[in-house]
Structures are given as C-alpha cells and as structure tokens.
Amino acid sequence: MSQAEEVVVSTSRSAKGVSSSRPAPATTTLSPPRLIELSPQNLYDKCMALARNLWWSWHPEVTNMFRELDPIRWRQLDHNPIALLAEFTPERLEARAAELVLYSRINQAYRRLKEYLAGESTWSNVHAGVLGSKPVVYFSAEFGIHESVPIYSGGLGVLSGDHIKSASGLGIPLVAVGLFYDQGYFRQQLDIDGYQHEEYLQSRVEALPIEPAIGADGEPVMVQIDTRSGTLFAKVWKMSVGRVSLYLLDSDVEGNKPEDRELTSRLYGGDTRVRIRQELVLGIGGVKAIRAMGIVPGVYHLNEGHSVFATLEAVRGRMDRDGYSYDESVRRVARQTVFTTHTPVPAGHDRFDSGLIEEHLGPTRDALGISHDQLMGLGRVEPHNHNEPFCMTVLGLKLSRRANAVSALHGHVSRKMWANLWPWRIEEEVPIGHITNGVHVPSWLSWQMLQLYDRIFPVNWMKRMGEPDIWQKIYEVDPGELWETHYALKNLLLQFVRRRVSRQCRRRGESDEAVEMARTVLDPNILTIGFARRFATYKRADLVLGDIDRLFAMISDPDRPIQIIFAGKAHPADEPGKGLIRKIANLRHDPRLASRIVFVEDYDINVCRHLIQGVDVWLNNPRRPLEASGTSGQKVVLNGGLNCSILDGWWAEAFDGRNGFAIGRGETHLNDEITDRRDGEALQKVLQDEVIPLFYDRDPDGLPREWIKMMMNSISSLAWRFSAHRMVMDYARACYVPAAGGVSCDMTNR
Ligand SMILES: *Cc1c(COP(=O)(O)O)cnc(C)c1O
User: Fold this and answer.
1) Vertex 110, ends 109 and 114: CA angle to 5°?
2) What does the DSSP assignment read for 223-237?
3) What is the DSSP letter of 588?
4) What atom in ligand 1 is closest to the CA of residue 627?
5) Tens-digit pLDDT profile for residues 151-161
6) Residue 742 C-alpha to ligand 1 middle, in angstroms?
7) pLDDT digits (tens, 9 = 90+) for 98-120
8) Residue 190 β-bridge partners
C-alpha cells in the first residue's frame, strides 16, 4: 500500500544515497552458536537473499512470510521487504521467526528460489534452444514489477514486467534494459475540490533490490554517449527478476551537468528535449551497457518506440566489431530486431525535429558514415520530405524485420496507419502482425483462487497454464464454493477501499462525519463495478454518467442496486483528464450517490491488484479502436470477475457471447460526439438488460447460477489465452527463434 507518510519526501537529488537511520544489519554482532538450524545471521541472510530477487513478489507464500514479520510496517513500507528487513537486527528477526514458527518456511522458500535459479528443464530448452548462446535483449522505457519498485507509470510498464516474469518462468534467455527513475511516477492526491495534485517521492536506493552492474572488466559499468552538445554519462543498476537480469540506466552521475543528472529521475516528465535525451540513454546507452557486460545479443526486442535508437548503436557495433559495411550491418541488425508498437493514434508516436536529431545523433551518424538527410530519412515515411520530423516508430519499423501490434484489432489499425511506408503493398500485406498481450498469472491471481485451482488442476498446472485443457477443469468446481471464494475476495476489496477512502477524507480535512461515512461505504451484497485506468479522455471514465438520472435509478434501485469503484491517474499535463477525475470524485457530494460511488486515489499495482481480485464486473469503455490491447480485464478473468467492455483491444477477440458482456457491437460512428452518445446508451442498456438481471437472479440457495456459469466460461475460455506465458511463447516461436537464426514458425503478418 502506498502510505506516503512513511516515505522520505525530497525534491533534492542530494537526498539520494543517504542511509537510513536504522542500524545496518551487517554491523550487528553474531550471537553465540545455538542448537538450531540457522544462526540469526544466516537466517537474516536468507531472508535478504529472498528480498533481493523479485521472484518473491509472485510467490504468495514468500510474500505472506514477509507480511507476517510485521503486518503494519509491511503495509506502511509499500510491501518492500528490503525496507522491512532493514528495521530488524538478525537477533530480532530470529526471535520473530521463532515466535511465528517461520524457520521451515524461510528455508523452504530459499531452497525453492535456489532451485528455480538453477532450473534447467524449462520450456525454452525444448522450444527455443537456439537462444541459448544468444540472449534476447528486451528494451522498455518502464517496468512495472511490483508496487515497491516505482519505475513504471501504467499499462506499458506492467506489460513489460509481466513479459520478463514469464520469460523467466519459461526459461527464455533474456536480459532486459530500462531506465532507473529515482522519483518514478507521481503519487496522486485529490484536494477537497477533487482536483489532482502530483507528488514526487525520492526512492531510497538502498531500499531497492538493485546493485551496480559489473562489466566484463570487473568494474561497475559506466556508459558514455557523445552528442554535439557534450557527453552524457550513465551508470547501470542490475535488478534480478527471477532468472532475468534487468539493467537500469541512471544519469545521476558525476561528470553530467546538473540538468542531465536529473534526466532519468522521472517518467515522462519534461519537454521534447528531455524526452529525446532519455531515449538516447535508453537506446544508445542500453546497447553500450550490454556490450560492456560482454553480452552478445541474439535478438533485440524493442517494446514501443522509446528505445529504437538502440538499432543505430547496434549497427555501429556491427560495423566496428565485424567490419561489415553500413548497408550490410543494417540488414543484419534488422534481421535480429523485433519491434512492438502500442499506439493506435498517430499523434501518440514520438517525433523529433531535425535539430534535436542532429544534436543527439550527430556523432553516431558520423560513425555510421551517413549524411544528416540519410539519418532523417530513416525516421520519415517519405525519406526526402524535409518537413517531416523524425518518428521513432518509423525507425522501429524500418530497422526491424519483425514488427507487431498488441491485439488483432490493433494489428489492422497499425497496418492502415503505416501502409504508406510500403506503398507498393496492399494493406493486408503491410508487414505488421500482432501478438495479443497477456498477463503474468502468478502475479495477478489471488491467493484464494490459487488454493482453489491448486486443488482441481493438475499438479504442475502453473507450468502449463498456456494450455486450454487445464482450465476446462474449472467446470468441476462446486458453484457454491466458487461463489464463496469470490465473495470473500470482494469483502477484502471493500475493506481495502474503506480504509483508503476514509484515510483520503481525513487527509483532505473533511468533516468527521464524512470520514466516518467513508468507513462504511459500499455493501458486499450489491453488484460491484470497477473502473480503473489512466484518465485519458479517450477512455471516457464518465461514459457511465451519460444519463445521470438513469444511472441514479440503477444505483438506488431498492431491489437490484449497483455500486462503482473508480481509480486512476491523469497525466500531469492533461487538464481534461484531471477534469474527469474531479467530476467523478465530486459525485460524493451528491447524497443520492455518496455511499455507492467512490474514487480511490493513487492507482498503482497494489490498488489494481485489490480491484481486479474483488470486483464483480470490470468496466472498460474506450472510444474504439483507441485501446491497443488493455490488460487489466485479463487480470480480472483469473479471479472470477466478469468483463463488460466495448469491443476494443483484447476484448474484441476475446468476447464470445457467453464469457462476459459487450457494450455495443463494435460499431464506429461519424464523430466522437455521436459515438459517445451511442456508446453511453449501449452501456446503460447492457447494464440494465443483462448485467444487473443476471447478477440478481438467485436460486433458493441464494446463488446466481447463470452468473457463476459465466464466471466459469470466462475463466475456461480466456485465462490461458490471455496469459503472458502464451504471449511470450508466441514471441519466442514467431519472433525470437527466427530472429536468432532458428527455424521460423511465422504467425505475425510477415
Ligand atoms: C494492469 C495495469 C494497467 C493496464 O491496464 P489497462 O487495462 O491497460 O488500463 C495499468 N496500470 C496498472 C497499475 C496496472 O496494474
């Protein structure tokens, strides 16, 4: 949980590296030998080893073990085990472990981690052996792995995190490259007027599971990037995510100008110049860092356009090291490169003007031996159009042999959007395929549902979760038990929401009465709808408010009421988005809605996890086709919630008429105004005619039989298909293996 009060707030970079006031564990003296299996120091070291590999974050038995050590501090410290352990001496930890009988659990967890890291019988060994000696290098501007590691802002980051976790699980040789943001993304607070305020918190490096990356020369890696306006330096951190090493570049080093030291401090802050410099560090710096560590990539996977400068540095490396010509190097690098695009809106792609490109890529193009016009041409649809800026996606498409969108529908949109790059091809043959996103099951599955699946699925089901047959077993579960499990999860969600909302009220200085009321908002017996995502206007958080009187009638229906939980951040510069938040947050002043509509502040992985595990219905109503994929609804599926969504992104290919609800039929209208009106009507109609009646249709035992059947349909038809395991296996077979020189099994559009 994100309790701001427990975290050091600072805007000054100098705060970084200041050690905590707690005693450092290493300085404590060893206690005398005892007749127990572990010395206090040994026990402490094992716990710390567990805390320092994010493997723990998708193993509930390890997470629970950390929580039990001190449940209150665990929550206050954002579920950060390193920060928690720093508050223990080995002796106190031992005493606590004895009290809770944790020894064998700690030992067992430690042994499991060791075995996992050594594990050799993986999916990849059988299916992707060619990668063995040539790892995939996966680039992304953000990684959402756990709430305690704030180097992500939203969906793209969580997708990258899930991708590398599944790559680890499947044993795919992969290293990842990103940026180290020591202030991460902002923490959201709403004021009494419902207006969003942003707060940036300084991470304490010593409380994060990172360490300096060591180069092939045995020294900490430092990369150097020449520009026309001086040299940029970056150091490199290493983070362990299961079997995957994630390398994070950090420009906060001596030798950089003060403004450059801050370059990587925040996600998506700053102007275009900051942006290109961040992308320079990520792409060019990333390839240099990999090289410095002696890693020879088999494949470059560039997740979204932010990192595609990497291709230029890779080409330079080929010319340097292998002596190939520029043209031959380009061909070879493109053959190795996989590019994933995520943005269905033309304006959403990074573009830089000629001056910024020359300033930042000038020295690189000197080394490549190409002219400024040639370089600009690589980022232009029409290479010689001097009015066209340099587009990162265009470079990505030109310098990769395999490119993909992130859902079937997004594939169509992307082929249309970039068709003019291949004017000689018809649209269907534009070489952009698709691999639909999926989620890392162990990270998003609730402990309660895990117990249920463990009982009915085959023993090793977690390793085989990409197989449809496994999930058919859900029909063997007793409907009453499935419903009870869901009800328990829903209660946990409501407790979480009440705790959060009352705290928010108190912080905003609302009346005691309001704080008190917040402690009792929502009712577990009422149909509960969740809506949480970035508050970009195309996601239309207020669509359900379209006909407010009709909504009010649904909310306050005496027999079949509904309630809605909202959460989400607006980009700091997005005033219309902030307006939407305000509009929704202020509904609490309407006495008719007050206890049935809530806004939970500071949406992050933790808030998301609570929501997706406990809601009855997950609502998603973007303006089609602007949602490239969306993944939060896939997390809901695993836990028994139902999706109610516009037929956009993943849902357009997932909905089959019996595994959830569709808003409308996938139509598009003349303009936004008409679209919003029609979709708003369709939304209220599906709620009224389908969702609400099905939920409240109870048998004599009080069970909504048909609803439970739909939960089972949803789990059996969707969980395997929209898992990150399936996604990464698709990448491996269709992209990684052929890009590394193995036999192609092509499922992209090439
Ligand atoms: C999963 C997740 C997302 C992605 O959700 P969408 O469906 O793309 O809106 C965004 N933010 C967080 C914190 C998540 O966990």
Assistant:
1) 115
2) EEEEETTEEEEEEEE
3) G
4) 8
5) 999 999 999 99
6) 34
7) 999 999 999 999 999 999 999 87
8) 196
Q: Quote the distance between the C-alpha of residue 166 and its chain's center.
A: 13
CA 379 vs CA 86, 163, 384: distances in Å: 48, 27, 11
CB atoms within 10 A of CB 467: 14
Q: State if residue 631 touches ligand 1 by the CB under 6 angstroms criterion.
A: yes
Q: Is the CB of 533 under 6 A from ligand 1?
A: yes
567 forms bridges with which residues in the sheet? Answer: 532, 600
Residues for the chain: how many in total? Answer: 750
Q: Does residue 40 line the site of ligand 1, with CB under 6 A?
A: no
Q: Is 604 in the pocket of ligand 1 (CB under 6 A)?
A: yes
Q: How far is the CA of 161 from the centre of ligand 1 (A)?
A: 12
Q: In what order do the strands lie in the sheet with 642-646?
A: 597-600, 562-567, 527-532, 617-620, 642-646, 661-663
Cα–Cα distance, 432 to 411 (Å, whole number): 7
pLDDT band of residue 644 (cuts 50, 70, 90) is very high
Copy the structure tokens of residue 335: 């053959």
From 145, 158, 611, give the residue whose CB has the most ligand 1 atoms within 8 Å, as the site to mutate.
158
Query: Is residue 627 lining ligand 1, measured as CB closer than 6 Å?
Result: no
Q: Residue 723 Cα, ligand 1 centroid: separation in angstroms?
A: 14
How far CA 223 is from CA of 322, 359, 361, 645, in Å, comes to 21, 18, 16, 46
190-246 pLDDT, tens per residue? 999 999 999 999 999 999 999 999 999 999 999 999 999 999 999 999 999 999 999
Does ligand 1 have an atom closer than 6 angstroms to the CB of 356?
A: no
The angle that helices 60-69 and 447-456 make with each other, rounded to 10 degrees, is 140
Counting from 1 in the atom list of ligand 1, the atom nearest the Cα of 631 is: 7
User: How far, in Å, are 19, 674, 702 from residue 14 at the CA level?
Assistant: 12, 52, 60
3-state SS, one letter per residue, for 51-97: HCEHHHHHCHHHHHHHHHHCHHHHHHCCCCHHHHHCCCCHHHHHHHH
Mean pLDDT to the nearest integer, 675-702:
96
User: From ligand 1's centre to the CA of 655, what distance in Å?
Assistant: 19
Q: Exposed, middle or buried, 137 (CB in 10 Å: 0-12/13-18/19+)?
A: buried
The residue whose CA is least distant from atom 2 of ligand 1 is 155
Domains of the chain: 7-118 (no CATH), 123-187+197-437+729-739 (3.40.50.2000), 441-459+479-722 (3.40.50.2000)
Please say whether the beta carbons of 189 and 601 come within 8 A.
Answer: yes
Does ligand 1 lie within 6 Å of residue 643's CB atom? no
